[in-house]
Design brief:
alpha+beta, Elongation Factor Tu (Ef-tu), domain 3, Alpha-Beta Plaits, eight-stranded antiparallel beta sheet, about 25% helix, protein biosynthesis, guanosine tetraphosphate binding, RF3_dom_3_sf, GTP binding, GTPase activity
Length: about 500
Amino acid sequence: MSNRRTFAIISHPDAGKTTLTEKLLLQGGAIHLAGEVKARGAARRARSDWMKIEQQRGISVTSSVMTFEKDGITFNLLDTPGHEDFSEDTYRTLTAVDSAIMVIDAAKGIEPQTRKLFEVCRLRNLPIITFVNKVDREGRSPFETLDEVADALALDVSPQGWPVGLGGLFQGVLDFATGEVSRPEGDSREFLGKREANVELPADIAEEVELAQGGYPEFDMEAYRNGDLTPVFFGSALKNFGVSELIDAISRFAPPPRPQPSDAGLVEPENKEVTGFIFKVQANMDPNHRDRIAFMRMVSGTFRRGMKLTPSGLAKPIAVHSPILFFAQDREIADTAEAGDIIGIPNHGTLRVGDTLSETNGLRFTGLPNFAPEILRRVQLRDPTKTKQLRKALDDLSEEGVIQVFYPEIGSNWIVGVVGQLQLEVLISRLEAEYKVEAGLEASPFATARWIKGSDAALNSFEQFNRANLAKDRDGDLVFMAKSPWDVGYQQEKNPDLIFSATKER
């Protein structure tokens, strides 16, 4: 069995995902400063949040990749944006993982973004481990949280431990498997490794534990791997409770690399041919070098540095001389990589989100779509002499999946499309910080967009009457710019020979 575990962390904003990420890295030996969230200045932001706007606003808006090893297992952790405006980036990241950790705030339960991300996991049958965070604060009864997960997400729950008291009465976390209680110590009340066995629990807690162990199903590996059951752990990421148990659970329960869907059928990780797909492109991770990194999920084979692979979008092989393994801003050259690993490939725009890389160019991985934007804006350049820089910046950012760019058939103003408002703020911030381009956004007459497919005759006929509502995307594909959802329905009815699609497979 493979010793790779590739997983994502999903949660609503402020549930503690970034802090948990940091503590997992600390436990895995990838960082050595305990509690960087308590540090001052620049060190206060967790290592996975590197973009300027993330540091200013205290939110993760891009997916980071971090690799660490513990007890012979290689963990590839993909940290996803918690904010709903970045659902596209999160969706693509979830195509690259084999399981997920769902973080829930003990006081708030399941919040809207958690539910949305869970549904994406369900679409892909991703196994989920649940971590109920912040049990050292005042919160709801653990039973209430467990029942909400079971009812709202239609998921069997199997608690693997239990908080001994909540909030001010918090005394630690009981591990059902060992019967040990992790105790808080010191002024910070942080877990420093003290565990007590054969603890006599308070009567009310002992009764809760008995009810929990008898009232919920035992852990079932097959049900978990099928996405029907979630093991539940309780803890505090900030105070380091329950984190080592969580790593142990990922190691023991989470699946190794899974087969991936392609146009040639499922590709098994044991296949000899080296294959993978690009699920993310990130420009300017190192502003000093204007670099561009494509993140590739290895699907099969053993990759070796210097190997030639053919991208599906290029049709000619490229040599991968400097593949990178990541720990957020830190990186090292990877000599080899196995199925399940995430490697970064430096490139100058040749690799794009959705590209398949393989030795023979005989297949394409599926399931990495573009989604129709819900907000469309015209771009207004403050300095007309910087048109070329703006075009380059918009192309870069659309390759990353941050925005989509549409070039109208009539008129010169380019239109950007996004799923959420915050993406527009990121666009303006990055144009200025990374490309030294000052631009503004103004209202567009369009509300949404649809990709159009059909016979040449049907497309030509449609173009004659609707040129003012047509644009090309950056691939040159035809797009209908609709003034309203009603407009889409009307045109579909009027043009039955055409397909108006809200998604476009890369």
